[in-house]
Structure formats: structure tokens, C-alpha cells
Specification:
This protein is α+β, with helices and mostly antiparallel strands and about 220 residues long. Helices cover about 35% and strands about 25% of the residues. It has 6 helices and 10 strands. The protein has a 10-stranded mixed β-sheet, with no helix packed on it. The termini are far apart.
């Protein structure tokens, strides 16, 4: 019985030693890959942006430099998923994600922070094109006459003025129907003037005093 236990123990130690050797060989045989691409800036000369441009992989974990023709290579990158960015103080670039599997096959796609699972493939080797020049300062707003006319306060002043000046010219005051309507509106306004004042009624009601009756001059008897 003891011999069987010893044999099993020896076999287990042998298997463990083989696994340790396999893992050591895998660690020693790690391969590194190279990310390639090209930077394109339309309307600008190479000497204007080439010396200041750097290629950053995962925020600077791996750095690549530009060649004279605008191409770049980033060496010593193991398998995995990386974000490749172009760093330039004058131009903006859209980053790209490069995925490298264990067999060295590479795939490039757009970086989508809102929907990470959405895949939009890009061509590889990478072609990094500039979107727009960088703007460090906000452009100062200029004064425009149309902005002043669109102001609500100006509209409140201009529209009634136009109604006062233009409408009387559009209405023919010599027309008897128009004169009759104007007289009716004036008489209606005069009737409203004979109504008691609301503020006076409230003060008399709260003060407890009765409102004084106005004397009608037509009913005053002459002595």
C-alpha cells in the first residue's frame, strides 16, 4: 500500500514539473508585433507637421515616430487591444483601435465610447487623416444689426410704433362706415369711464366708509 502511494506521488510531481516547464517556455516565447500606418494631412506640407507628430498607443505606453514619407511603425507591442492616437499640436485626428490576436492577425476599428460593442472596421495598415485644425481660443462674437432687431425689447417697441404710424394710413377715415365704427368705439369708451374705480371700492369696503354719491349737476335745483 505504501508503494502505491509513493508511485502516485512521483507521478503527480512529474506532471507538475512538466506543466511548470511548459509555462516557462510560453513565457519565454512571447512574440511582439508591429503596428503600421500612415498619417495624412491634406493642404499642409510635411515639414510643417512631421517633426511635431508622435504616435501614441494606449496613451503613451508605446510610442512611435514618423518617417519622412508620413508613415509610422510602433514596434514591441504584444497581442491585445490598443488605442492608437496621433499627437500633434496643430491638427486633430480620430483615434483607432487595433486588436492583435495570439496568431498575429490584426484588425482595426473605430473607437466608440458610447457603444463599445458596435464595430466599424477600418483598413489596415492604418490611414490616420486629420479632421480639423485645433482651436485653442474661442472666436469673439461680432456685432450684427440683425441680432439687435431680434431682441424682444426692440420688437416690443417697434411693432406698436409701426401699428400707430402705418395703420391710420391704411384706413380710409373719409369712409362713412369707418366713421360710424369709430364713433361707436368712442362712445363705448366713454361708457366705461363712468364705471366706479376698483381701487376706490376696495378702500371704501376695507375702511368701512360708504362711498360718497356724486351729485348730478342736472338735478341740482336752482334757488
Amino acid at each position: 500500500m505504501k508503494e502505491i502511494k509513493i508511485i502516485v506521488l512521483v507521478i503527480c510531481l512529474g506532471v507538475f514539473q512538466v506543466k511548470c516547464e511548459d509555462t516557462d517556455e510560453d513565457n519565454n516565447s512571447n512574440t511582439y508585433y508591429t503596428i503600421e500606418g500612415k498619417v495624412i494631412i491634406s493642404g499642409a506640407k510635411l515639414l510643417e507637421w512631421l517633426p511635431e507628430t508622435r504616435i501614441l498607443v494606449d496613451g503613451g505606453a508605446y510610442v512611435g515616430f514618423m518617417r519622412a514619407d508620413g508613415s509610422f511603425t510602433v514596434s514591441g507591442v504584444p497581442s491585445g487591444s490598443y488605442v492608437v492616437e496621433v499627437s500633434n499640436p496643430k491638427f486633430l485626428f480620430e483615434p483607432a483601435r487595433v486588436e492583435i490576436n495570439g496568431k498575429g492577425k490584426m484588425r482595426a476599428r473605430k473607437v466608440n465610447l458610447i457603444q463599445p460593442n458596435k464595430i466599424n472596421l477600418l483598413s489596415y495598415p492604418l490611414r490616420m487623416k486629420s479632421k480639423t485644425p485645433k482651436e485653442y481660443f474661442q472666436k469673439r462674437e461680432e456685432f450684427r444689426v440683425t441680432d439687435a432687431l431680434k431682441n424682444p425689447m426692440v420688437l416690443m417697441m417697434v411693432v406698436p410704433l409701426i401699428c400707430i404710424v402705418v395703420l391710420p394710413k391704411l384706413i380710409n377715415s373719409q369712409d362713412p362706415e369707418v366713421q360710424r365704427e369709430m364713433q361707436q368705439s368712442m362712445s363705448f369708451m366713454n361708457q366705461n369711464q363712468n364705471l366706479p374705480d376698483l381701487s376706490e371700492m376696495m378702500t371704501n369696503w376695507l375702511g368701512g366708509t360708504q362711498p360718497t354719491k356724486k351729485r348730478d349737476k342736472s338735478k341740482v335745483k336752482k334757488k
